[in-house]
Amino acid sequence: MGRVLDATPVLPPREEAVEDALGRVLAADVHTRAPLPPFDHATMDGYAVRATDLAGSLLLPVVGESKAGISPPPLATRSAMRIFTGAPLPGGADTVVMQEDVVAEGGVVRFPRIPDRGANVRRRGEDIGAGEVALARGIVLGPAHLSLLASLDLARVGVVASPRVLVLPTGDELRRAGTPERPGSIPESNGVAIASMARRLGATTELVPTAGDDAAGLDRALSDALPRADVLVTIGGVSVGDHDLVRPALERAGVELAFYKVRMKPGKPLTLGRHAGGLVLGLPGNPVSAMVTFGLFGSLILRKMAGRDARHTTARARLGAPVRHKAGRRELVRAVLDGGVASPLANQASGAVLAMARANALVSVPEDVGDLAAGTDVDVYRFEAIGL
Prior knowledge:
The protein is of the alpha/beta class.
């Protein structure tokens, strides 16, 4: 994992409309230009008064009205002003008495008691003063953050750019789902899965047309995709068979390969490369292998590029059934996690997409252990944490 992160750059900042910045990472501290709220205002419908005026009389004439969006005149001495929630407090007033607590009749209002000074008033700068840090860089912007930015009168905000991911499936046998069958063909499903995982992880994605198992076609596909991608994800063709042509095509395209193969199951033939515009992640072609490797490695790449915390978080669980494991490779076992118990599914084949669709977690079996008994405590990757 460390080599993946070392090879991954953080993307430069860019400005986005505040309403489009959900889930993005704030690129710089946001300072307030004015206090928030910008003026004293009422938090209840009622009557604005000077609290000291009521020390002499609990009966005051009503003079004028203050409603939201209009600046009221100053409050005359020994008088009250009708006021509504969110409306500016008139000059001279310091208190709002709720309408439920008074008796209004014939242009005067009777107060049953002297209110606490400052009651039902939200003061200018009560949330934050001018020139202060409202949001610190590195925050992942949620709905409440966007509300605050809009409240600070900001239409645009600087955020770390969202990674652009292009997904390139490869293989002569692949056809688009729903198109006419041909002998030996299968519907292309990996690209759909990986592109949707990348979107779930916050990237913008493009699923490009499938490339066949021929060198010239791969060269054309790579020359089109590489300049447009922060991360190009290829699927299939990265092993060492006669028809595994992706690695040599990447090298012809000027991609510098950082590593090839990882000690894990499923997903051994995984390739990471660098080029002038970004990274290339070469995934194995088996569906489960592709999803698992992208979940573990691709998710880290996209998080770091977007300026987010690029560390995996795992949960602890107990095995609900034994797991057979041959030491030597780390294994990720599909399981159903429920109430702290991870129950491995029976079919762990790398092409078993039904088991993948029914699972919601991966049990991590370390490379240096053998079989695990039911009840063993294990580390578990929840699907939602890795984009699945």
